[in-house]
Design a protein that fits this description.
heterodimer; A: 5-stranded mixed β-sheet; 7 strands; B: globular
Chain lengths: ~160, ~525
């Protein structure tokens, strides 16, 4: 039985991988922390977008938010955007605005209290980041956060910006 | 309806599949006192989503849990759904989560590590416009108790939610849930017939989001009609106020959950039909910690009878230094006195029972937490925290006013340093002093946890965790636990983790759902892929 399940899983993976090479566009609208609606395609049509899933209870996420804030400050004038999607459950949502304000985070933050958008992008754990180019293709992904990950991410952002993507 | 919509245009359009897979394997022993039990688990979970025709998604979960680490054995398709989503309209048939307001009436979610799953199998329709959002849903919830997985509660629910936004800053919402349920009584083997219930749960909420101030108020009532018995009613109130300044944010939360206030006999009957139902899950109004020793809770939130506050503040002194302060307190509403017959209780009400009490007969719990974080360069930081927690358990059955008070003081320290792109080190130390006082008897001990995380080339991590206790009453009858773990990231989408060693068990809570996890000794492997 495990063999059968694993072989089914392998077939699913292979098929998905084949299709993903061909086509990768993603789009959705998500409520922002100030109740306004954000459409992903409107963001990536203007330049590279990093979608980052995070939560207040997740220490690596908060460490990553710090470096993302710096990257945003560095490249926002060149068209780079970040959309932070908060994964706190309803119990902590009230604290999210307070945290954002204290950290002076000025990129877009949206709420996903029942993991609907994390599932849409097939995330299983956080922090989880996806970098979209101007065409809506996912060009870089990162699961988890290790100090220094931002160097690799910055290289990818620079590549996209220099290619006009 | 969805099939008809698909039929409009089918082949030759964009198809975007996405897949995630989590494989978990473990081989070792669980400890129940001095009894060792062999435990092997093998779990493979594949989530597939196929987006097509821009607006449609078909998805399923292929699950192989045989044997699972927690929960029940399963192999096959555990979830499937079809979804239509355009600018205004959202339709979904199949398995789904859902949330109304802050979850006082409905919050369907899954936590696999606690074997808790209230996802519904049914239909959801949502419509949104600039002025309002509306949704209706209906379906079946097959709920396995996370403490006793052979207890199976079944609910058929129907409901709706309407949210009006006359201005961007204001949301006014109303929700209603009707449920019919079958609730087994006592343990699965008790032989007590299950109870059939009908429940109605209306909810009203208001959300105001101004530039520097936000306010939220949520009220819900619950009527439970147990067939052939009486109707019980209860209610819950949650509110929060946040104020935001320059580099500063403060939030005050309030809870008053009175969904099923009962005397001590009723309170400790966790299978009673009148309690808050599993598809309700309001805010816990306590801090959700990330330090290991603080994630072991002294207090389990009692959603049926609890009142309390939480104050949480973040402040940045400059770009590099942040302070977080959190304080919370809670208690039950009324105390109960054992009558002279030695069997029955009388309720002793207090006038101000909308506020928590520090008196021992109200089972008070409080917690004060403060944490400072300083970044001395972009990726290198030091964090130092302190937490005091105290829980009182009052023995109403003894009639002599005896109580057990557990006090814990924890100092966590974390230093994270990036030496170069090739190497970083995170060191974490957590020390906890515990004092358990039963009447005049004191028991003191400490727990200490040290963690080293070495990261090489942003791909490989090597972690060592060592925990030590001076407690004489640990369930595994051990004094120390050591685990080594290796993690490797393949490309951008795969993470493999292997660990070997002894892990200390304990109570774990998330979202107000708690489960006792037994100590484990052995090998674990997990492979996570998100493509």
């Amino acid at each position: 039985m495990p063999k059968m399940i694993l072989s089914k899983t392998a077939i699913i993976f292979f098929t998905a991988y084949f299709f993903i090479q061909a086509q990768n566009k993603t789009d959705f609208s998500i409520p922002a922390i100030d109740n306004k609606s954000i459409r992903l395609s409107e963001l990536y049509s203007k330049g590279p977008v990093l979608v980052n899933f995070w939560a207040l209870w997740c220490e690596p996420c908060k460490a990553e938010m710090k470096v993302l804030k710096d990257l945003y400050g560095k490249y926002r004038n060149q068209g780079f955007t970040i959309l932070g999607i908060n994964q706190d459950s309803p119990k902590s949502v009230s604290k999210v605005r307070s945290y954002i304000s204290s950290q002076k985070i000025n990129f877009l933050v949206a709420l996903d209290p029942n993991y609907q958008y994390l599932q849409k992008l097939n995330g299983q754990s956080i922090p989880y980041s996806l970098l979209f180019n101007k065409n809506g293709d996912i060009v870089y992904k990162s699961i988890g956060y290790l100090p220094g990950d931002e160097m690799r991410l910055e290289e990818e952002i620079q590549k996209l910006l220099s290619a006009g993507q | 309806m969805i099939i008809l919509l698909i039929g409009k245009s089918v082949i030759g359009q964009t198809i975007i599949p996405s897949v995630s897979n989590l494989l978990r394997y473990g081989d070792g022993e669980r400890f129940f006192g001095n009894i060792k039990l062999k435990q092997k688990y093998f779990e493979n979970l594949t989530d597939v989503r196929i987006s097509m025709l821009e607006s449609f998604v078909v998805g399923f979960r292929l699950l192989y849990d045989d044997p699972p680490e927690v929960g029940e054995t399963f192999h096959g398709i555990s979830r499937r759904f079809i979804e239509y989503n355009n600018e205004d309209l959202y339709l979904r048939a199949g398995n789904s989560s859902a949330l109304f307001g802050r979850g006082l009436a409905l919050n369907l979610f899954e936590n696999r590590s606690l074997a808790y799953d209230t996802w519904m199998d049914g239909i959801i329709i949502k419509y949104k416009s600039e002025l309002f959002n509306a949704s209706i849903l209906g379906g079946r919830i097959d709920f396995r108790d996370s403490v006793n997985v052979v207890r199976n509660e079944i609910y058929r629910i129907r409901g709706g939610n309407f949210e009006l936004s006359p201005f961007n800053e204001i949301n006014i919402g109303a929700a209603y849930i009707y449920a019919e349920g079958i609730i087994p009584q006592g343990a699965a083997s008790s032989g007590i017939p299950a109870k059939n219930i009908k429940a109605e749960i209306p909810e009203l909420y208001l959300n105001i989001n101004l530039r520097n101030l936000s306010f939220y108020l949520d009220w819900s009532r619950k009527w439970t009609n147990v067939l052939n018995e009486t109707t019980s009613s209860g209610w819950g109130l949650y509110s929060s106020v946040s104020y935001l300044g320059e580099g500063f944010g403060i939030t005050l939360d309030y809870k008053n959950y009175s969904f099923d206030i009962l005397d001590p006999y009723g309170r400790y009957d966790f299978s009673r039909a009148t309690r808050m139902l599993p598809f309700q899950n309001p805010p816990i109004v306590q801090k959700e910690h990330s330090y290991t020793l603080l994630t072991r809770p002294l207090h389990e939130v009692n959603f049926n009878d609890e009142v309390g506050f939480q104050l949480d503040a973040f402040s940045s002194f400059n770009e590099k230094t942040t302070l977080n302060f959190n304080a919370s307190i809670s208690s039950i509403h009324s105390s109960y006195m054992l009558n002279e017959d030695g069997l029955t209780f009388s309720e002793v009400k207090r006038n101000n029972n909308f506020l928590p009490s520090f008196k021992k007969e109200f089972f008070p719990y409080y917690e004060i937490f403060i944490e400072g974080e300083h970044y001395y360069n972009a990726s290198s930081a030091i964090r130092l925290a302190a937490a005091v927690r105290e829980k009182t358990f009052f023995n109403e059955f003894s009639g002599d006013g005896s109580s057990t008070v557990t006090r814990s003081f924890v100092i966590p320290l974390q230093i994270q340093h990036l030496f170069s792109e090739k190497y970083s080190l995170t060191f974490q130390s957590e020390h906890e002093w515990v004092n358990e006082k039963f009447n005049e008897t004191d028991q003191k001990y400490f727990n200490h946890l040290i963690t080293f995380i070495n990261s090489f080339f942003l791909k490989l991590t090597a972690t060592i965790r060592f925990e030590y206790t001076t407690s004489e009453i640990d369930i595994s009858e051990r004094k120390n636990w050591i685990t080594g773990e290796l993690g490797y990231r393949f490309g951008q989408s795969h993470v493999i983790t292997a660990s070997y060693g002894r892990e200390r068990g304990g109570l774990i809570c998330s979202n107000g759902v708690c489960k006792y996890i037994q100590p484990f000794e052995g090998f674990r492997l997990s492979v996570l892929s998100q493509i």
